[in-house]
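Quick one, probably user error.
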């Protein structure tokens, strides 16, 4: 009877861990759909929308620039500046969706960042600008946060799990092979 209880506990633990892993993977998959804020920019030749996170925080910030009409052969240069700090990157598009250009900035200071968008084609260059207010990261400083309990649980599962599973072989070994 004891072996049946151990088997049931093992199956229950396996089912729980499997469901937890599936749940966290689903949350991770949907985390990429976070670009919601829209800036509408107009120039003499182009109309575009800029998408970025609703509450952008210090660190990596994804920008998506969508042209209303297919822009043709252009280069899209973005320059982010805050005081003395300046970063630049080119936005890239794919052949699958040539109206959408994407880029990523790694910004390590909070504040109102100015973004200059330069649309460069073979004949001319047009400049647009917009601002994004970056917030500080909200890191928990409590030693007993949710992440502390999660890592403790993972540590115990990794190191105590094998001891529990193989306890009969470990503790009942009387020297025979």
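Nope, works fine. Designed sequence:
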């Amino acid at each position: 009877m004891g072996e049946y209880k151990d088997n049931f506990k093992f199956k229950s633990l396996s089912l729980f861990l499997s469901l937890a892993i599936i749940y966290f993977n689903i949350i991770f998959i949907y985390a990429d759909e976070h670009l919601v804020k829209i800036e509408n920019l107009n120039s003499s030749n182009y109309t575009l929308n800029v998408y970025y996170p609703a509450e952008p925080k210090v660190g990596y910030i994804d920008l998506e620039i969508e042209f209303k009409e297919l822009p043709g052969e252009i280069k899209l240069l973005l320059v982010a500046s805050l005081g003395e700090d300046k970063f630049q990157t080119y936005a890239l598009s794919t052949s699958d969706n040539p109206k959408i250009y994407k880029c990523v900035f790694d910004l390590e200071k909070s504040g109102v960042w100015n973004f200059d968008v330069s649309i460069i084609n073979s004949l001319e260059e047009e400049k647009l600008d917009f601002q994004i207010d970056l917030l500080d990261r909200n890191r928990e400083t409590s030693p007993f946060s949710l992440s502390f309990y999660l890592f403790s649980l993972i540590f115990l599962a990794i190191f105590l799990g094998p001891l529990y599973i193989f306890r009969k072989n470990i503790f009942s070994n009387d020297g025979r092979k």
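The beta strands are 35-42, 47-53, 59-67, 75-82, 85-93, 100-107, 111-120, 125-134.
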